[in-house]
Amino acid sequence: MAKTVRVDLGPRSYDVQVGPELLSLLGETAVRVGGIGQVVVISDSTVSQLYGPQATDSLVAAGLNVKLLEFPAGEANKSLATAGRLYDELFAIEPAIDRSCLIIALGGGVPGDMAGMIAATALRGVRWLQSPTTLLADVDASVGGKTGVDHLAGKNLIGAFHQPSGVVIDVITLKTLPLVELRSGLAECVKHAVIRDASLLDYIEHNAEGILACDEAILTELVARNVKIKAGVVSADERESGQRAHLNFGHTVGHGIEAFLGYGGATHGQCVALGMIAACRISERKGLVDASVRERITHTLASVGLETKVAGLDSGEVWRIMQHDKKARAGTVRFVLPTELGTVDVYDDVPEKDVMEAISMLG
Amino acid sequence: MAKTVRVDLGPRSYDVQVGPELLSLLGETAVRVGGIGQVVVISDSTVSQLYGPQATDSLVAAGLNVKLLEFPAGEANKSLATAGRLYDELFAIEPAIDRSCLIIALGGGVPGDMAGMIAATALRGVRWLQSPTTLLADVDASVGGKTGVDHLAGKNLIGAFHQPSGVVIDVITLKTLPLVELRSGLAECVKHAVIRDASLLDYIEHNAEGILACDEAILTELVARNVKIKAGVVSADERESGQRAHLNFGHTVGHGIEAFLGYGGATHGQCVALGMIAACRISERKGLVDASVRERITHTLASVGLETKVAGLDSGEVWRIMQHDKKARAGTVRFVLPTELGTVDVYDDVPEKDVMEAISMLG
């Protein structure tokens, strides 16, 4: 039942394979993308324990020379300091790695961003494969080539665009994912539906039970459909200068809420879910859509157990944070707003009072 | 008398301007490549003191918002730790920089590599201009987009390919360059001549006096011709998979000598000069050229005051170091050897005894 989605980026094109038990085929994929000698798997302590042996066994069976580097799990470790320790370990490997080295990112967003950053910068760039293990990473980070680490001044401030040579998504790994994290990824799935494919909302609603129970066939279909949507957007705008902005739907207010609630307050996806509802409300105030769009999205989010209300938000403070977001170019806060279900556009002329009202409405 | 050389890299093409007093036009260039707001000049303590005010004055006069970041001069500071401090300062700038930020590398190889690395990785890549101030950086680092920092395990192990938006070479800055550093750059000029354009050897020999006296017109012509040669090689092979290897002529043995002599032993260019002589000797032993090629190159090197002999080399130790060079792919040491004056080819079947003999001959 495995599916393959092509990410079309000219000479940097690659395949995303989605299906159950694909980790066992990691070695085959590594050889197919040109792995010929040293392979370095970079993972975090949590994922390494769960899936490290399966990944390395497959690579060793394919005749590759494998080394596993591990760093402590958690966003707090997605830092230049951790990268520095990984470089130390990478360059201590004997015999010394050369540009034929293949790096494999095993894990969710943090190991993916970190391993991708190392691949982008070791020896001025070596090839890498991504093997995400969270739904958020499956449908979001697996396409686009964004890599990086955080800085005290903000998330992902240090990094590079560095496309992987391939992505291997084993949906079995979602069975060990906490439900709250599965839901976080589902918010991004809803986002993809709203910006490009309204019929995906139907799919999510109709299969909510199967998704939450980690049915392999349903997850494979869900992930493949989402990867295809994201691949379409990224293919058209690799360096994030145009329509890739559409992927920020729900993120303008969402990031504000995420920062307001602070570490541990709510998952990224949960905040994006709330941000999408707010964006719909702003869109209504602008006369772009009627309330049915917001109601429909809210219903889909609720069907998979995402919260559609949040207590204790301070609208003024959330708005202040939004104005300082790194994506606020030259002080203007940009909004991605639905113009109908399945289509969005970018606006930078949203009145402050409409934003405040939309945030208040979430309470 | 200024000259412009185009580096043709498709969508990443850019111009290299060469001439006297060009630092005063830095602001104009910055605006022309799209600098619209924040400009951050990154330089080392030596160059910052000499040319920082001239560069920033020009940028301010062009209406740009300029910040100068400085780090202590010296290769020892081309480290991830220094990069970390520069990120801290960069992200502390108010208002916060966004992707429209333009970084300007002011200085020789170290500030160029460092500022380029910061530009390649800040916010996943911002534009940058290079304004080199040493002959080596003028004719070598200014073309190719190589950026990076050193690691204890080796030079330039951490970095990226990130093409600048333009290069501004003010040949006046060579007047403050120590003669030994000017000569180091001249070795790379001789290298360019040998790999691509034998008539450049004539130019260097005939104008040796003017070059060493920093005659503006001669330096402008010399630098422009060299930039053009390097641009031709890099255009044909941006990511260093094919003919860009030709630029390593003299570097295989040269790096070995440089590492053997250690810090302060001899300049990079001086070691490359010796490496070129050794490569010619190896080429003779292979029957590719006769001794006249080596004699001619030796004569040109001597005409600008580069040493063509070195005392105290241990051939066996130099050879051991060469075998551990990061460019020794899968254990094979590759040699770039002249096949006639102006043409080279790559060989990986050089017998150890020929290498040893060629190194011994330098004593």
Radius of gyration of chain A equals 20 Å
The oligomeric state is: homodimer
CATH class of the largest domain in chain A: Mainly Alpha
Dominant shape of chain A: globular
Mean pLDDT across all amino acids of chain A: 95
CATH arch. level architecture of the largest domain in chain A: Up-down Bundle
Structural class of chain A: alpha/beta
Write a short abstract of this structure.
2 copies of one chain form a homodimer. Chain A has helices at 26-32, 45-61, 80-92, 109-121, 135-141, 179-196, 199-206, 208-212, 216-236, 251-261, 268-285, 291-303, 315-323, 352-360; strands at 3-7, 14-19, 38-44, 65-71, 102-107, 127-132, 146-151, 154-161, 166-170, 335-340, 343-347.
Question: Any overview of this molecule?
Answer:
2 copies of one chain form a homodimer. With 363 residues, chain A is an alpha/beta fold. In chain A, strands 1-2-9-6-5-3-4 form a 7-stranded mixed β-sheet, sandwiched between helices. The first copy, chain A, has a two-stranded antiparallel sheet with strand order 7-8. Chain A has a two-stranded antiparallel sheet with strand order 10-11. Chain A is built from 14 helices and 11 strands. Chain A is globular. In chain A, α6 (179-196) packs across α9, α6 (179-196) packs parallel to α11 and α11 packs across α14. At the A-B interface, α3, β7 and β8 of A face α3, β7 and β8 of B.
